[in-house]
Write a structure and sequence with these properties.
- The chain is of the alpha/beta class.
- It has one domain (about 5-10, about 25-30, about 35-215): Vaccinia Virus protein VP39 (Rossmann fold).
- Helix content is about 30%, strand content about 25%.
- The protein has helices at about 5-10, 25-30, 50-55, 70-80, 110-115, 130-145, 170-180, 200, and strands spanning about 40-45, 60-65, 85-90, 90-95, 100-105, 120-125, 150-155, 185-190, 210-215.
- The chain has a nine-stranded mixed sheet with strand order 3-4-5-2-1-6-7-9-8, with helices on both faces.
- The radius of gyration is 16 Å and the shape is globular.
- It starts with a helix and ends with a strand.
- The structure holds S-adenosylmethionine.
- The site of S-adenosylmethionine has 20 residues, from strand 2.
């Protein structure tokens, strides 16, 4: 999936994936990660999600990674975050309040950004990527995240004959295949999500399941 695809979507305002309200799975399951309030949370492919403001309100430091400058500047403006910007090789960074944003390609983020994270929050990130990129995404997290780090992962599954992604269908057994070697995985919830995703129903889905997983990076052997 080309970067231009996403940049164009933000340019055109074609952002049906964006929710104005905090995602219910985040509010329902975040406490199960048992993090310290000041824990640092990496939000890959973060868009402009208000979930980051909810995480900051819990006391967390939030590290968002996003291709689109428009998305990050929308978040900073909507949440009135006073910030500074800096230019790093391949990235523009925004620093302000409890936020550190990296504007650029997730797959090029410096290792120390991952190493500083205590947790990862993924809603609509893994499922935004086609299969080969999902493998690279999971491998990158596994390689760079510190042992003991936790992750809240929200996935979607549906019949791929009914709709082309993104979001892509990621069945639970694919989550196992992608992460099992390096993470302990617990699925905490699995529910019908069609009623809450009108846009996907209009694209042809007659059934949609949302799964919520809690992962913990295993100790390195
Ligand atoms: C489906 S949206 C989800 C955004 C956010 N997680 C949310 O819940 O609203 C996927 C986002 O990933 C961004 N993105 C896609 N590929 C990326 C990459 N390689 N590096 C950084 N961001 C990327 C897109 O610009 C888009 O904002």
């Amino acid at each position: 999936m080309e970067q231009k695809f996403w940049l164009d979507r933000w340019e055109k305002g074609d952002i049906g994936f964006h929710r104005d309200a905090v995602h219910p799975a985040l509010q329902a399951h975040w406490s199960e990660l048992h993090l310290a309030p000041r824990a640092r949370v990496l939000v890959p492919l973060c868009g402009a999600t208000p979930d980051m403001a909810w995480l900051a309100a819990q006391g967390h430091e939030v590290i968002g990674v996003e291709l689109s400058q428009l998305a990050l500047e929308r978040f900073l403006s909507e949440h009135r975050v006073r910030h500074i910007t800096m230019e790093e090789p391949g990235f523009r960074t925004y620093l302000g309040g409890r936020y550190q944003f990296w504007c650029g390609d997730f797959f090029a983020v410096p290792d120390d950004v991952f190493a500083s994270a205590d947790a990862v929050y993924d809603r609509a990130s893994l499922v935004a990527l086609p299969p080969e990129m999902r493998r690279r995404y999971a491998a990158r997290l596994a390689e760079r995240i510190r042992p003991g780090a936790k992750m809240l992962l929200v996935t979607l599954d549906y019949d791929p004959a009914q709709m082309n992604g993104p979001p892509f269908a990621v069945p639970d057994d694919e989550v196992t295949t992608l992460f099992d070697q390096h993470f302990d995985i617990a699925r905490t919830n699995n529910e019908d999500a069609l009623a809450d995703n009108d846009g996907l129903r209009k694209r042809g889905l007659t059934a949609l399941t949302e799964s919520v997983f809690i992962l913990a990076r295993k100790a390195v052997a």
